[in-house]
Design brief:
The chain has eleven helices and eight strands. About 30% of the residues lie in helices and about 10% in strands. With about 400 residues, it is α/β, with parallel strands linked by helices. The longest helix is centred in the first third of the chain and has 27 residues. Helix 3 runs parallel beside helix 4. Strand 2 and strand 3 form a beta hairpin.
Length: about 400
């Protein structure tokens, strides 16, 4: 009886290799020059896993391509684990298990040998000893100290070395520069405008300073009108606009606690200058309304809030506060807390007992009197003799 394998050329199991003539009929690509053909078993030895395409029942058939007679047969190097031609599936499974076990054993032996002091793969050097680490750290500290002593700059012609992996750091960063001090006023005695005023008025101009490009000239109190008139009408200066007139209070200066400041602008020249005059509690300063008409309201505001008087002013009276208000709120010694004064007692209406109690409660909480528009409307109603909440009539 003829074996079925001889008739069909293939095993009954479609995954098993043929016994005769199948390898010759199956085509394969030629191996590249210098390359060694790898078998599934050699791959299993390297990876420790079963080769892809293999199973417990057999291996995959190689794909046929081209003419069997024209394609050269692949040459496979003989290895100890080369499967025999008549290998059964059970034998193949046992052989693959043995190959995987051998690969795992070799891998564990190599790891044990590397951990026991042998040179690790890849050419890496062994760990540095504690003495070598300490020596490198000391050298790095000495280098850093030398750089710090020279201001953080390396020696001329020296090549900066890269920091080592252990203990040595990069060159220290230079210290951050301190923030420059804020600009301060400086003497401006050499300024052309001050020299011109000095030649014209002599001791009537006592000094000058400059701050961030702004010239300030100090003028004697009795010469302020003359200086302002000259700066306005002179063809070279032409300060024809009084942009501001204000005051500064210095309580510690007992003789002259106030400083009147005149800010002048030359529209045609786009230039500015600041005049300063010292004033006391009494006497005040001469008014410049005859030079600039707008000084009228500015001087009234200074008089209202600071209490400085201006001689020869056409209408010197309060402009913001009531005429009978006591004190000048922009002085630094003026009390900030709520206070009862004669003006409050004079102008507030008479309250009933209930309203008086409400006022006292508000004072206890530190609230100001008549601080809202509604409260001011109540005051007007009381003055008119009307009832705050009239009774509703059915």
């Amino acid at each position: 009886m003829t074996d079925e394998r001889d008739k069909t050329g293939a095993a009954s199991d479609d995954k098993a290799p043929s016994r005769g003539g199948a390898d010759e009929r199956a085509g394969s690509l030629p191996a590249p020059e210098g390359a060694t053909a790898s078998s599934p078993e050699s791959q299993a030895a390297l990876t420790g896993k079963a080769p892809s395409g293999s199973s417990a029942s057999g291996t995959t058939m190689p794909a046929a391509s081209g003419d069997p007679s024209s394609a050269p047969p692949a040459t496979v190097a003989a290895t100890p684990n080369t499967p025999p031609a008549d290998e059964t599936p059970e034998e193949k499974k046992a052989r693959l298990a043995r190959v995987i076990a051998e690969a795992k054993a070799k891998k564990e032996a190599a790891a044990a040998q590397a951990g026991g002091g042998a040179e690790p793969p890849g050419g890496a050097t062994p760990a540095t000893s504690d003495e070598e680490k300490a020596a490198k750290i000391a050298a790095a500290k000495a280098k850093a100290a030398a750089l710090k002593a020279t201001g953080g700059a390396p020696a001329p012609g020296a090549t900066p070395a890269a920091p080592s992996a252990i203990g040595e750091a990069a060159a220290p960063v230079p210290p951050v520069k301190k923030k420059e001090d804020a600009p301060a006023p400086k003497d401006a005695s050499g300024h052309p405008l001050f020299k011109r005023l000095r030649e014209k008025f002599g001791e009537g101009v006592t000094g000058a300073s400059e701050f961030v490009g702004q010239l300030s000239v100090r003028v004697a109190r009795e010469r302020i009108v003359e200086v302002c008139e000259f700066l306005k009408t002179d063809g070279e200066t032409k300060f024809d606009f009084l942009s501001d007139l204000t005051c500064v209070h210095y309580p510690d200066n007992f003789d002259f606690p106030f400083e009147i400041v005149y800010n002048l602008l030359s529209i045609s020249r786009n230039a500015r200058v600041r005049l300063k005059v010292s004033a006391g509690e009494t006497g005040g300063v001469e008014s410049v309304t005859q030079v600039w008409t707008t000084a009228n309201w500015m001087e009234r505001e200074v008089y209202d809030l600071f209490g400085v008087t201006f001689a020869n002013h056409p209408d010197l009276r309060r402009i913001l506060l009531p005429d009978d208000w006591q004190g000048h709120p922009l002085r630094k010694d003026y009390p900030l807390e709520a206070m009862e004064n004669e003006w409050t007692a004079k102008h507030l209406p008479e309250f009933s007992e209930v309203q008086q109690e409400q006022v006292e409660q508000r004072r206890a909480y530190g609230l100001e009197l008549l601080s809202t528009p509604a409260e001011r409307r109540v005051r007007d109603i009381f003055r008119g003799g009307k009832e705050v909440m009239p009774k509703e009539h059915k």
